[in-house]
TrEMBL record:
The gene is coaBC. Binds 1 FMN per subunit. This is Coenzyme A biosynthesis bifunctional protein CoaBC. It comes from the Bacteria. Its cofactor is FMN; Mg(2+). Residues 11-228 are annotated as: Phosphopantothenate--cysteine ligase. Pathway: Cofactor biosynthesis; coenzyme A biosynthesis; CoA from (R)-pantothenate: step 3/5; Cofactor biosynthesis; coenzyme A biosynthesis; CoA from (R)-pantothenate: step 2/5. It catalyses: N-[(R)-4-phosphopantothenoyl]-L-cysteine + H(+) = (R)-4'-phosphopantetheine + CO2; (R)-4'-phosphopantothenate + L-cysteine + CTP = N-[(R)-4-phosphopantothenoyl]-L-cysteine + CMP + diphosphate + H(+). It comes from Agromyces ramosus.
Amino acid sequence: SARRDLAGFRVVVTAGGTREPLDPVRFLGNRSSGKQGVAIAEAALARGAEVTLIAANLEIGEPAGCDIRRVSTALELQQAVTDAANGADVVVMAAAVADYRPADVSESKLKKDAGDVGMTLELVRNPDILAGLGHAPHDGTLLVGFAAETEPDDDRLLELGRAKREAKGADLLVVNRVGWNEGFARDENAVVVIGHDGVVVTRAHGTKMSVAEVILDVVVSESTTAAA
Ligand code: C5P
């Protein structure tokens, strides 16, 4: 890339989706492929950043040149991102993190009982990792969250994004619409980036790489504003 506008930046990106084990062979997961997060990591690297990629069950290859930390569960991701965020200039939380995990993880494969017609799983809440970072002191670290929403109405989608940015204490929140045919595992994405006071900083659509570049443009301009 011609632009080396992230030279000297330490960027942390979480990508993929967490898996919460039920037993040695089963998990609760989600359809996040990791493509958007990996595109952000690759683009940041090309723009000169030092990149730590926290990779949760990626369905695509890991980019070369990043410091990669592989995690699987939300609690592992929390540990890895909390460590890496220390002293980072930017943290991008692109990973889809499970809100709940099974209350108990069975040591052996769960069996069905003859005659069972169903079963109930008990789940407990996972910590909100982004909110944890957002509500702790993080001077000098720009926090970028994501929100995958199925809301079809554009105004309501924006409202959800604004509320989420505020609640989590993120500096920027990237909202994208997901569904059976949008968002996850696709090569293209359409996003709205929300900033402080709920302003729509920009909208972007196209390949996940082009969306990554636009998000990083915002990161660069927010960082120079903050430093000025
Ligand atoms: O609340 P919701 O899951 O929609 O928020 C999405 C954003 O919050 C993403 O940036 C995701 O990485 C982050 N998140 C988190 N910890 C959770 C759930 C989501 O950090 N337990």
